[in-house]
Amino acid sequence: MEEEYWERFLKTGEIRDYLYYKGMAICKKVIDSYESGGSSESDCSDRHGACGGTCR
Description:
Elements: H1 2-12, H2 15-35
Helix pairs in contact: 1-2
């Protein structure tokens, strides 16, 4: 499917079609990562990793 979006971009040259292509590539990476076990990081990060404080 990724190739289909690339071919569309090559025909039109439109930025929108390129972004669809890049979106498919990113989506594929995420799916592959998820299917292979993915990351063990927490889904609730405070931007300093899974642990840490805000130091306020």
